[in-house]
């Protein structure tokens, strides 16, 4: 395993045309870019514009916190052990997660409170989060990371996810790309073991024209070839769905779909979809923000019979009794 990593790293350094396998989060801008994009997308036409503005404030708070955050890095031995077992380099789902993320949560709540007038519902939620003990908070974190829907508290989850994101994005931004193992599991982040939120076809420099799936936890982007399911690796039964004007002619509809900056990529093999954005059509496209802000596309694709490969970490479904 270690041998394979060394070889891959050497090949990448010798061949300037090699596709960059990873794009690590940019510490100085990662959450600020999300906040800016969320505000851009929170226009009057968006059915959840108020929520997007609240989440933009949360992303801003994440960026301020990240600037001074310094989570303990795993030891060299732990990193090498995970490499040998083709395990994520700093797995998030572990009993050795430590208390750093809970400190991050309380600092984010301070920021949200300081930002100004809280609705009664939000004030109540903040109070509820503050009253939870360490065990209850860690149980929520585990349920979120393991996608155990029935145990997730949908109202509290975005804030808990935001705190976890600060810790793991901090780690990912400081990890040496060459240390990151190759995993056998498709669609899993090799840095933290979480699942991607959406993908982006990038423009610029070494990334030009390549598609990356962005991790919903640590924001690391992993290269994934186009027209391939990011959930099960299938290349069969892939289809694309885009919002089109309902009163457009069929011809106009297909033209609109061809030029759409955001689509949903569905897979008939596993029945799921993830969204994909094209930076050449929307330069500020940000996978995490654009995924959250495009609820109407989710409705369209779910009407077509597909389900999300994973929930957005800031928008958990409210389960009905039938779902549980
Ligand atoms: Zn990750
Ligand atoms: Zn699939």
From TrEMBL:
<dbReference type="GO" id="GO:0008199">
    <property type="term" value="F:ferric iron binding"/>
</dbReference>
<comment type="similarity">
    <text>Belongs to the FdhE family.</text>
</comment>
<feature type="domain" description="FdhE C-terminal">
    <location>
        <begin position="228"/>
        <end position="315"/>
    </location>
</feature>
<dbReference type="GO" id="GO:0051604">
    <property type="term" value="P:protein maturation"/>
</dbReference>
<dbReference type="GO" id="GO:0005829">
    <property type="term" value="C:cytosol"/>
</dbReference>
<dbReference type="Pfam" id="PF04216">
    <property type="entry name" value="FdhE_N"/>
</dbReference>
<dbReference type="InterPro" id="IPR024064">
    <property type="entry name" value="FdhE-like_sf"/>
</dbReference>
<dbReference type="InterPro" id="IPR056797">
    <property type="entry name" value="FdhE_central"/>
</dbReference>
<dbReference type="Pfam" id="PF24860">
    <property type="entry name" value="FdhE_C"/>
</dbReference>
<feature type="domain" description="FdhE central">
    <location>
        <begin position="188"/>
        <end position="226"/>
    </location>
</feature>
<protein>
    <recommendedName>
        <fullName>Protein FdhE homolog</fullName>
    </recommendedName>
</protein>
<keyword id="KW-0963">Cytoplasm</keyword>
<dbReference type="InterPro" id="IPR056774">
    <property type="entry name" value="FdhE_N"/>
</dbReference>
<comment type="function">
    <text>Necessary for formate dehydrogenase activity.</text>
</comment>
<dbReference type="Pfam" id="PF24859">
    <property type="entry name" value="FdhE_central"/>
</dbReference>
<dbReference type="InterPro" id="IPR006452">
    <property type="entry name" value="Formate_DH_accessory"/>
</dbReference>
<dbReference type="InterPro" id="IPR056796">
    <property type="entry name" value="FdhE_C"/>
</dbReference>
<feature type="domain" description="FdhE N-terminal">
    <location>
        <begin position="19"/>
        <end position="182"/>
    </location>
</feature>
């Amino acid at each position: 395993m270690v041998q394979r990593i060394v070889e891959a790293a050497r090949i990448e350094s010798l061949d300037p045309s090699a596709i960059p396998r990873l794009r690590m989060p940019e510490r100085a801008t990662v959450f600020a870019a999300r906040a800016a994009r969320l505000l851009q997308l929170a226009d009057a036409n968006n059915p959840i514009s108020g929520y997007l503005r609240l989440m933009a404030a949360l992303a801003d708070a994440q960026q301020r916190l990240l600037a001074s955050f310094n989570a303990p890095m795993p030891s060299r031995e732990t990193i090498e052990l995970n490499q040998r077992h083709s395990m994520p380099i700093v797995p998030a789902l572990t009993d050795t997660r430590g208390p750093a993320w809970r400190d991050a949560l309380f600092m984010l709540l301070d920021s949200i409170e300081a930002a100004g007038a809280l609705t009664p519902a939000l004030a109540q939620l903040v109070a509820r989060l503050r009253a939870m003990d360490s065990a209850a908070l860690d149980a929520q974190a585990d349920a979120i990371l393991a996608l155990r829907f029935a145990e997730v508290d949908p109202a509290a989850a975005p804030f808990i996810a935001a705190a976890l994101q600060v810790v793991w994005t901090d780690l990912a931004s400081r990890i040496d790309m060459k240390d990151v193992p190759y995993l056998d599991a498709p669609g899993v982040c090799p840095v933290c073991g979480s699942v991607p939120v959406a993908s982006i076809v990038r423009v610029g420099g070494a990334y030009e024209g390549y598609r990356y799936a962005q991790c919903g936890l640590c924001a690391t982007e992993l290269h994934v070839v186009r027209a391939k399911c990011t959930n099960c690796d299938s290349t069969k039964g892939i289809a694309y769905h885009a919002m089109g004007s309902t009163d457009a002619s069929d011809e106009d509809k297909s033209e609109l779909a061809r030029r759409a900056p955001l689509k949903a990529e569905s897979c008939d093999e596993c029945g799921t979809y993830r969204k994909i954005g094209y930076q050449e059509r929307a330069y500020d496209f940000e996978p995490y923000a654009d995924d959250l802000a495009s609820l109407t596309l989710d409705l369209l694709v779910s009407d077509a019979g597909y389900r999300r490969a994973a929930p957005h970490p800031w928008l958990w479904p409210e389960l009905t009794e039938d779902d549980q």
